[in-house]
Specification:
heterodimer; A: alpha/beta; Rossmann fold; 9-stranded mixed sheet; two-stranded antiparallel sheet; 7 helices; globular; B: alpha/beta; 2 domains; 5-stranded parallel sheet; about 25% helix
């Protein structure tokens, strides 16, 4: 039996796109006025799962933890990935969880899915929380080999091996692409630069076929949706939500205005004469360069 | 009271026999924090560098010079490359190894079980390694930290203390800038003292943004203990095979150009034509183009070509991207969030173009051109054409 089972963990996030996002006068996000959507990194993870659907005829399942309205993110991710199984873990007991408490819910949920997973995908990080910890923490709890910053992958379904390229960027060094090989199961967190490529005609035909199917499925996404509360999921209530979260947000403050490091001269931008003086100063600043 | 948690462990990263700068920055900050800690609490806790790799004895010694009191190293051919699974296991073993914990400071040897605090780098390696290690250790982790304070905190918390007032002594306050750069969130990792679900959460851990803290000058007269740790290596944890590594040359270069022009949300009135204007200005000055962090998150769908050329993480100037010391830095439509300022403040001459005189960037520039970029940049280009002719420098 060489079938491949793929799960994706996703997140409903504030929509940062122009027209949907709203900022407070102080530059912070106005959450009440900002719409929600499938997080952009989650969407990339769903695309990576769809690659597995097209290339290996994989079965795709999607999981998220969130409020009831997070079913919107599941629908959007289904439309991308042609998933047959959508899981929403929703309970007030889960609220306020940090990444460790969240990873526990996702771990239990993934293990509860119909199939035993071969690959689990997550996005690089959420665009609101931005920790990037939930993916690797879920991986470790599942006991899956974790591969981070993956920009492309392929699977040998017969030998049950995955090959992946990872983008590693380290301070002061040029970026490195590392190619790795690991036996399934693996947990892959997808780099923002991930791209699926379908090179042959048969791949592109399969792409079209599953794309069409994905749209049909997501039109009736509720037929594929299962919602679990804490009890239905069977989680240990001390390991999720606030009790299962070692960290708390102690305070949120405006970043204090740092003392001015420079004394700016203010110039009227509509006055060509003043602009001419600015350019003269720019020229002086660049004087170590070869200027004629 | 018996204290089971002692010392500050710093997980060191290195490549090709050299430390990544963030490793020494973390040691420097750890040293400053613990010096304050030891004098405040009349204690004798240590900065402990943890280093994994192969043939790393020399590196271990240098860590003492940079401020560590002790180094625990694991030297094994299987640790030559960073692989998440085996690295997580070995770091987990080191953090729970009471033998080396006792050797570090014999005074505490009888009771010590784990480190009190633990630092990782917030980069492609440390971000994931910290996440998995802290699941292994079942404790808390804050990411992308740029300020650290140790305090006794008195609080009552519905979940943590069951609503009772409690003092959490020697608590690490971990400050992280949020995605906007305007808010600072302080994260604490606290034991659950609520009788309903009592649990210890130590070490208190975080990942630290590279480039934020200053390293110490190496001092060869510093002394410290170097402790070899022999890891237990299970074949099960060696499943990942590294096939090859290829160095990528970035298309974006923030190190050689003398001039950098960066743009932020201020392009929003007409992103496409504003970016064209910025491109023209860059051409006149032979400048590289940078962006602020929110730009890399694709907030605008401009055009596929412009999106993929400019709205990318590789162009971000700031704590989540590059740091530059350009001779001339022009910030247009940039408000001046802390995380961006960090990336440009070492520049020589700074010009900001912004209609809002209240924008924080005003305090970070030498000339503040008040106006909209749509109006100002064409004037600048015209004037530069008259005055400046850049000769290509090799």
């Amino acid at each position: 039996m060489s079938h491949l089972n793929i799960a994706v963990i996703i997140k409903l996030e504030p929509d940062f796109s122009e027209g949907n996002v709203s900022y407070n006068p102080d530059g912070t996000l106005n959450r009440a006025e900002t719409k929600n959507t499938l997080g952009p990194h989650s969407a990339i993870a769903a695309h990576a799962a769809f690659f597995g659907r097209v290339m290996y005829d994989a079965k795709v399942s999607i999981a998220t933890m969130g409020p009831p309205i997070a079913d919107l993110a599941l629908q959007q991710a289904q439309q991308i990935s042609d998933a047959e199984e959508l899981h929403l873990y929703s309970d007030r007991l889960f609220a306020g969880a940090d990444t460790l408490g969240t990873a526990e819910v996702l771990r239990v949920g993934i293990e509860k899915m119909q199939e035993k997973m071969d690959i689990v995908f997550s996005g690089h990080r959420a665009s609101d929380g931005e920790t990037g910890q939930t993916g690797p923490q879920t991986a470790w709890k599942l006991g899956f080999t974790f591969l981070g910053n993956v920009i492309s992958y392929n699977v040998d379904v017969e030998t049950r091996m995955v090959r992946a390229k990872r983008l590693i960027s380290l301070q002061g060094l040029p970026n490195i692409i590392e190619e790795v090989e690991a036996p399934l199961p693996v947990f892959i967190s997808i780099d923002p630069t991930y791209k699926s490529s379908y090179n042959t005609v048969s791949q592109r035909l399969a792409f079209q076929k599953y794309k069409k199917e994905a749209i049909q499925l997501s039109d009736n996404f509720k037929d594929y949706l299962k919602i679990f509360n804490a009890k239905e999921l069977g989680v240990d209530e001390t390991l999720v939500g606030l009790p299962g979260s070692p960290t708390i947000v102690y305070k949120v403050e405006r970043v204090p205005k740092s003392t001015a490091t420079r004394q700016a001269e203010v110039i009227d931008g509509s006055d060509p004469e003043q602009i001419s003086k600015v350019v003269k100063k720019m020229k002086e600043a660049l004087s170590a360069m070869v200027i004629k | 009271m018996v204290e089971k948690y002692r010392h500050l462990y710093v997980v060191i990263e290195h490549e090709d026999g050299k430390f990544l700068p963030v490793s020494l920055e973390m040691i420097g900050e750890a040293r400053r924090l613990l010096d304050g800690f030891n004098s405040k609490y009349s204690s004798n806790e240590k900065v402990v560098a943890v280093i994994l790799g192969h043939n790393i004895q020399d590196l271990s010694k240098q860590l003492i010079e940079y401020g560590a009191d002790a180094v625990v190293y694991a030297d094994n051919p299987e640790l030559k490359d960073v692989r998440n699974t085996i690295y997580t296991k070995v770091i987990g073993q080191i953090a729970q190894d009471t033998k080396s914990l006792g050797e570090i400071e014999p005074e505490y040897a009888n009771d010590v079980k784990r480190p009190r605090y633990m630092f990782f780098a917030a980069d492609s390696i440390g971000r994931h390694l910290s996440s998995t290690t802290l699941v292994e250790l079942e404790s808390g982790l804050a990411s992308d930290i740029n300020k650290l304070v140790i305090e006794d905190i008195e609080m009552s918390h519905q979940q943590k203390t069951g609503g009772k007032k409690e003092t959490y002594a020697k608590t690490l306050e971990m400050y992280r800038p949020d995605f906007s750069g305007f808010l600072w969130t302080t994260i604490l990792c606290l034991d659950n003292r609520n009788p309903a679900f009592q649990r210890d959460y130590h070490p208190q851990s975080c990942s630290i943004i590279p480039g934020v803290f200053e390293p110490l000058k190496p001092d060869s007269s510093r002394e410290g203990k170097i402790i070899e740790f022999t890891p237990t290596i299970d074949k099960q944890d060696l499943k990942v095979r590294i096939l090859n590594r290829q160095i990528l040359k970035s298309e974006v270069d923030f190190d050689t150009p003398r001039t950098i022009i960066s743009f932020g949300r201020g392009i929003k009135n007409d992103p496409e034509s504003n970016i064209k204007l910025i491109e023209n200005l860059a051409k006149e000055l032979n400048a590289e183009i940078g962006v602020t962090l929110p730009m890399s998150k694709k907030p605008y769908s401009i055009s596929h070509a412009l999106d993929s050329k400019y709205m990318i993480p590789d162009r971000v100037i700031g704590t989540s991207g590059h740091k530059t010391s350009a001779m001339l830095y022009i910030a247009t439509g940039v408000s001046g969030a802390m995380q961006h300022v960090w990336g440009m403040k070492d520049s020589g001459f700074v010009v900001a173009i912004n209609p809002d005189e209240e924008a924080p960037i005003k305090d970070e520039c030498d000339i503040f051109i008040k106006g909209r970029m749509e109006d100002v940049i064409p004037l600048l280009i015209e004037e530069i054409k008259k005055q400046i002719h850049i000769v290509e420098v090799q």
